[in-house]
UniProtKB/TrEMBL annotation:
Listed SUPFAM superfamilies: PLP-dependent transferases (SSF53383)
Matches recorded under InterPro entries: Aminotrans_3, Class-III_PLP-dep_AT, PyrdxlP-dep_Trfase, PyrdxlP-dep_Trfase_major, PyrdxlP-dep_Trfase_small
Record organism: Deinococcus aquiradiocola
Keyword tags: Aminotransferase, Pyridoxal phosphate, Transferase
Annotated signal peptide: none
Protein name: Aspartate aminotransferase family protein
């Protein structure tokens, strides 16, 4: 393990990972839980605080993935825990479809105030990201009277039937799950790392804009589009920031054809990039924005916030869910938003980005296959390729994830080709823990490269 000189390492391993008790509990999971449920590392958690997870064997590891981006405020933040304890003693879920509880409106008020756009807004709360996307699409279709939904390559929007139709990466998320909801149109998305050789960035972005215009003739007429749905930073797709020019083009087209622009900020929102919503970096204002994951600091809650006239379009009773916006989840969201709207808390995102870029720029000098370091704030990734043509190289990524875990650091894979390692740490991770964890991953990358470089054209 590696720590800042003069500090005690946060990683404390008393057994090999996974430990014997984790392995025993893993066997129970295999016996009783569907094997279709994925799992990154075979760790059984006893407790967690901040960016540290303590397992049932007495080991302590550093978490750089935070439940896949749900913990921007860290595990068990004391403000969140206090809010949950207080609310649990009052009412757990009387049902917003039956009565009113003010926490729901308080969360909506905060999101309406802080979401992009200087116009009246309203919000509906749901349980998770996919449910929020479903609601956003339903409302957009109702408002426009149209059916067509435009999405993009590499996107991930959820695992319900409609959101699987909207999601890219067929083999992992969609194989044998169809047929899928109709009237979903998938278009190419700019990826500056995969720009054609010899093309300037300006020319490439202009070409991408032209392809978007072409799609309005080749795939769907503008008059049939209910909404264009975009992740401002792809999450599962490999932490790919969408260029501001392309976001502006989507905004222009939506204005021209009367479609709704929806920003899916399930992973990129809730402060992850240093702003409450990632699309704010581009200065583009969507008609609707979707929040989830870190909104609830680990509790199941999501939100659709949009122009009031759009959100109020459906008839009474057209939207809602039994558990959506329950008092416990809202209490957590209020505590989370109180932190995530503080500039000093959001500043942690830039600190994370600086550290990731610094550490892995140094690694790149030794590992030419580590071809890209990208992201915004606390949403970062490193991508591996096997040659100068940037052919995706997924083989080392699983090894990096598993070896990093065995040394006490949790990271995950990402990318359309599963050839990227992603980092989604808590924004308040102590600098010493961040440096310690990144040093472990950097050492692992060098080690895996030394063993596998013969598989590439760089050797």
């Amino acid at each position: 393990m590696t720590a800042t000189p003069g500090t005690k390492p946060s990683i404390q391993l008393v057994t090999p990972l996974p430990g014997p008790e984790s392995q025993r509990l893993q066997a129970r999971r295999r016996e009783h839980v569907t094997t279709a449920l994925g799992q990154t590392v075979a760790l059984s958690v006893k407790s967690a605080q901040g960016s540290l997870i303590h397992d049932v064997d007495g080991n302590t590891v550093i978490d750089l993935i935070g439940g896949i981006g749900v913990l921007a405020v860290g595990h068990n933040h004391p403000d969140v825990v206090q809010a949950l304890v207080e609310q649990a003693g009052q009412a757990v879920n009387p049902g917003m479809l039956v009565v009113n509880h003010d926490h729901y409106a308080q969360v909506a008020e905060l999101l309406n105030r802080h979401a992009p756009g200087d116009f009246p807004k309203k919000t509906i709360l749901a349980n998770g990201g996919a449910e929020a996307v479903e609601n956003a699409v339903k409302i957009a279709r109702y408002f426009t009277g149209r059916a067509g939904i435009v999405v993009f390559e590499g996107s991930y929007h959820g695992r319900t039937n409609l959101t699987m139709a909207m999601t890219s990466k067929y083999g992992l998320f969609k194989k044998n799950m169809g047929p899928f909801s109709p009237e979903v149109y998938r278009l190419p998305l700019p990826n500056l790392f995969r720009m054609p050789p010899g093309m300037t960035q300006d020319a490439y972005l202009d070409w991408c804009d032209a392809q978007l215009e072409h799609a309005l003739t080749a795939y769907i007429d503008g008059s049939a589009i209910a909404a264009i749905v975009i992740e401002p930073v792809l999450g599962e797709g490999g932490i790919v920031p969408v260029p501001a020019q392309f976001l502006r083009k989507i905004r222009e087209i939506c204005d021209r054809v009367g479609a709704v622009m929806i920003a899916d900020e399930i992973q990129s929102g809730s402060g992850r990039t240093g702003k409450l919503f990632a699309i704010e970096h581009a200065g583009v204002v969507p008609d609707m924005v979707i929040a989830a994951k870190s909104l609830g600091a680990g509790l199941p809650i999501s939100a659709v916030t949009g122009r009031a006239e759009i959100m109020d379009a459906p008839h009474l009773g057209a939207v809602g869910s039994t558990y959506g916006g329950g008092p416990l989840a809202c209490a957590a969201a209020l505590a989370s938003l109180n932190l995530l709207t503080q500039p000093e808390f959001l500043a942690g995102a830039a600190r994370i980005e600086d550290a990731v870029r610094r550490v892995f720029t140094d690694v790149q000098r030794d590992v030419p296959a580590l071809a890209d370091i990208r992201g915004i704030g606390g949403m970062m990734a490193i991508e591996f390729v096997r040659d100068a043509a940037r052919t995706p190289w997924p083989d080392p990524v699983l090894e990096v994830v598993q070896r990093s875990f065995r040394r006490g650091v949790i990271v995950m894979r990402a990318g359309l080709y599963t050839n990227a390692v992603r980092f989604l740490p808590a924004l308040n991770i102590p600098q010493e823990q961040l440096e310690e964890a990144l040093a472990v991953v950097a050492d692992v990358v060098r080690e895996v490269w030394a063993e596998k470089k013969g598989e590439t054209d760089f050797a």
